[in-house]
Amino acid sequence: MKRLLLVLTVLLVCHPEAESATTVPDGKAIFERNCSVCHSINPPSKSAPPIIPIASVYHRQFPSKAAGVSHMAAFMKAPSKASSKVDPEAITRFGLMPPMVLSDAELKAVAAWVWDMYNPNAGAGRGRGKGTGQGGGNCQ
Ligand code: HEC
Questions:
Q1: What is the pLDDT at residue 11?
Q2: How far is CA 50 from CA 4, 5, 41, 60, 66, in A?
Q3: Ligand 1 centroid vs 130 CA: distance in angstroms?
Q4: Which residue is closest in CA terms to ligand 1's atom 41?
Q5: CA of 4 to the centre of ligand 1 (A)
Q6: Model-level pTM?
Q7: Is residue 85 part of a domain?
Q8: Is the minimum distance from the CB of 34 to ligand 1 under 6 angstroms?
């Protein structure tokens, strides 16, 4: 028991950020709760384009993380065909994304997480599924 208390004290002293966890939303947790029903991270897709290809599109179209995250957060609040950055075929195939009922801080946090999921080695449509041939028409 004493030992447990000691461990807890050490944890709190060494990890003061644990206390502020509620004020800084965790993008990954928000994704898992609100987005993963429709979005997989990697292909194959569920009912929406997977996150890694979306991240590639955003990295190609925006010069900075701040600009990309800001556009993505605004899109999620009020998706529209006109402000969509993904291949228009994705909207034909999956329909438009429904608006997200999340706070601005949560939208920013999850958008930043999506942005950071970018993997330069995966490319967008390049080198995907090496050795698996052409792949099966996954949305990109
Ligand atoms: C009900 C299903 C559904 C949910 C839930 C959902 N999405 Fe989507 N999302 C879609 C579909 C379908 C598209 C592709 C069409 C489009 O761009 O609107 C999409 C597209 C996107 C795009 C690309 C936007 C663009 O520029 O076109 C991003 C980024 C995105 N989703 C992020 C998220 C995040 C983050 C969440 C969770 C907060 C989320 N989505 C929740 C269905 C969903």
A1: 52
A2: 42, 44, 5, 16, 21
A3: 26
A4: 35
A5: 44
A6: 0.79
A7: yes
A8: yes
Does residue 82 fall inside a structural domain? yes
Q: Is 48 inside a domain boundary? A: yes
118-126 mean pLDDT = 68
Give the Å distance between the CA of 24 and the centre of ligand 1.
22
For the chain, how many structural domains are there in total? Answer: 1
pLDDT interval class at 93 (50, 70, 90): very high
For 48-63, how does the pLDDT look when each residue is reduced to its tens digit (9 = 90+)? 999 999 999 999 999 9
The per-residue pLDDT for 24 is 78
CATH of the domain at 101: 1.10.760.10
Rounded Cα distance between 121 and 2, Å, is: 49
Share of the chain above pLDDT 70, in %: 71
70 within some domain:
yes
Radius of gyration for the alpha carbons in the chain, expressed in angstroms and rounded: 18
97 lines ligand 1 (CB under 6 A): yes
Query: How many CB atoms are closer than 10 A to CB 23?
Result: 7
Range of 87's domain? Answer: 22-116
